[in-house]
Amino acid sequence: MAKAIAASFLVLLLAFPTVFGTDHDVGESAGWALGTNYATWASGKTFRVGDNLVFKYDSTHEVDEVDESSYNSCSSSNSIKNYKGGNTKIELSSTGKRYFLCPTAGHCAGGMKLEINVVAAASGTPPTTPSGTPPSKSPSPPSESGSPATNSTSPPSPKSSGAVSVSSGIALLVGSAIVFAFMA
Ligand SMILES: [Cu+2]
Question: Which residue, of 38, 137, 142, 170, is most buried by count of CB atoms within 10 Å of its CB?
Answer without folding.
Answer: 38
